[in-house]
Write a structure and sequence with these properties.
The complex is a heterodimer of chains A (about 270) and B (about 230).
Chain A (H helix, E strand, L loop, with lengths): L5 H8 L3 H8 L23 E2 L2 E6 L2 E6 L3 E3 L2 E4 L5 E5 L2 E4 L2 E2 H22 L5 H14 L1 H5 L7 E6 L4 E7 L5 E4 L2 E4 L3 H11 L6 H18 L15 E6 L2 E4 L2 H20 L1
Antiparallel strand pairs in A: 1-4, 1-8, 2-3, 2-12, 3-13, 4-5, 6-7, 7-9, 9-10, 10-11, 13-14
Helix pairs in contact in A: 6-7, 7-8
Chain B lengths: L8 H18 L3 E6 L2 E7 L8 E5 L2 E7 L1 H21 L7 H18 L6 E7 L9 E5 L5 E4 L2 E4 L3 H11 L6 H16 L8 E7 L7 E3 L2 H9 L3
Antiparallel strand pairs in B: 1-2, 1-8, 2-9, 3-4, 4-5, 5-6, 6-7, 9-10
């Protein structure tokens, strides 16, 4: 027999914003009105985010991404942001179909904030990483249509007192990376670059340099990835996540390091 | 068949109001003040885990007095309302006014339709940004009555005395330390108590913060502010 207060209990278990939407506002959930009219595998030409990466360094994690969105062989946007703050101690870098990916980042950010406000405490980093995995799994039908979203999640784990990086596959599978990870069309080149340059416990200055070297390498080899744009003054987004929170690396600093990398490469070519 | 005995609606409302007021007056009080950088919320609450003051959305905070389970329920509904609204429109579209109206409707309906009214009063505060937008404070009573308050507000057991005290002593443009000391003086004077930082739950809506303006003040910070020279 159902007692009058049973429902209250179920209701109180809903600290999840996604569950709240599913129950009360299903029309607001991403991918709610998907109808499978296209045959599976039909590519849809929408803007795609290209290269994002995350790497561990001495104080925590650095996340970075180029600024270009690419649709087919065209530049869809030159100034898109791919690294989002999800709460004080975590961030997500999006790669894949830009629209659904941004929607997912926004939902994920609201999810974390909702939990924090209702419970009065934040989720553990593991909890956050699992939650994002579930959201990616929800996107699987859209992924079959070519709208693949594969983010990188990184954050500072307060319990373990270290930065951690998680990568995902399209089915929502979650894998932890201990050193560095890159996603998107230029990710293979960025990973190759990181493989040679990354060292354990790099200080901030060196880690920033390694980050930008990897992004510049990705832009060099992959047509979809945008390099530092000196003409328009567009530089990659770089964010740090440490025990003191989510921070921006100022654009001036990014610009300075990018220019240093390019100057060095010019010299190498000339010699 | 026994005849249901008749109670005039007037009598019924009077009884309910008296019942609700009695419940609220037993509870401890909350004082909120506008100061130079935002809004200060001070609750007499020795528990560090069961909150009376909390965050609703970027610029919006909630405070409740009376029965804990009842205002806790309202708080969670407020967070849901705001998060859904912010998610489906934009973060800037979430306002204290809409939320205060929703609370007013809910409490009004409960008061007239349910056998037992809620024994709560809630306050919804929204800090204005630096560009001249005013801060807003809405005070909603157990029967859905809604008042918008200027500069200061008080709820709970000694609310009338507190309001009188604040009326005499409040001035605009106080620093955080001054505002906190005034709030504590008001709570002390009206109840003949000497409250320490351990008896208080304090939070601010700080307009100098980016995005989420709500911030709790831990006891160490409170102790410093309470003894800071004016």
């Amino acid at each position: 027999m159902e007692r009058s207060w049973d429902r209250t209990f179920n209701d109180y278990l809903t600290t999840s914003f996604t569950d709240l939407l599913r129950r009360d506002f299903p029309q607001l959930l991403p991918g709610a009105q998907q109808s499978g009219t296209l045959p599976p595998g039909t590519p849809i030409d929408v803007p795609h985010g290209t290269t994002v990466l995350a790497l561990r360094y001495h104080d925590g994690v650095i996340m970075a991404g180029d600024r270009q969105a690419t649709a087919g062989y065209q530049v869809a946007s030159r100034r898109i942001e791919k690294i989002f703050k999800t709460d004080d101690l975590s961030g997500v870098g999006i790669a894949g179909a830009a629209g659904p990916a941004m929607e997912m980042a926004k939902l994920f950010q609201t999810e974390l904030e909702h939990y924090e406000k209702v419970e009065g405490d934040s989720l553990s980093l593991e909890g956050k990483a699992n939650k994002l995995g579930m959201m990616i799994r929800l996107n699987l039908p859209a992924a079959m249509q070519g709208l693949v979203v594969v983010p990188i999640f990184a954050g500072f784990d307060e319990k373990a007192q270290l930065g951690r990086i998680f990568k995902y596959d399209v089915t929502g599978g979650r894998y932890e990376e201990t050193n560095y990870e890159a996603q998107g069309s230029g990710s293979q080149y960025a990973r190759d670059s990181l493989k040679k340059l990354w060292r354990r416990d790099l200080p901030r200055e060196d880690a920033l340099r390694v980050t930008l070297e990897a992004l510049i390498d990705a832009a060099d080899e992959d047509v979809g990835t945008g390099g530092p744009d000196l003409v328009r003054g567009i530089f990659p987004t770089v964010r740090t996540i440490t025990r003191s929170g989510f921070g921006d690396v100022p654009e001036d600093e990014v610009k300075r390091v990018c220019e240093a990398v390019l100057v060095e490469r010019t010299k190498q070519e000339a010699s | 068949m026994p005849l249901p005995y008749y109670v005039s609606p007037e009598q019924m409302m009077k009884d309910k109001a008296e019942y609700a007021r009695k419940g609220i007056s037993r509870g401890r009080s909350i004082v909120t003040l506008e100061f130079a950088e935002g809004i200060l919320l001070v609750a007499e609450n020795p528990s560090t885990l069961l909150h009376k003051v909390s965050e609703i959305y970027d610029r919006i905070a909630f405070a409740g007095v009376g029965k804990y389970n009842e205002f806790e329920n309202l708080r969670i509904l407020g967070i849901r309302h705001s998060d859904v609204k912010g998610y489906s429109y934009s973060r800037g579209d979430v306002t204290a006014k809409a939320l205060a109206n929703a609370y007013s409707q809910a409490l009004g309906n409960i008061f007239t339709q349910d056998i037992k009214p809620f024994e709560v009063e809630v306050l919804v505060a929204e800090v204005g940004d630096g560009n001249g937008a005013k801060s807003e404070m809405y005070h909603i009573l157990y029967d859905g009555t809604i008042e918008d308050e200027k500069n200061y507000a008080a709820m709970g057991g000694q609310s009338d005395e507190l309001r009188r005290f604040l009326k005499d002593h409040y001035r605009e443009g106080m620093t955080l330390a001054e505002a906190l000391q005034l709030a504590v003086r008001a709570l002390n004077a009206t109840q003949n108590k000497t409250l320490t930082e351990r008896d208080l739950e304090v939070a601010v809506l700080d307009r100098t913060k980016t995005r989420r303006k709500f911030r709790r003040l831990p006891p160490e910070v409170l102790a410093q502010l309470m003894t800071a020279p004016q």
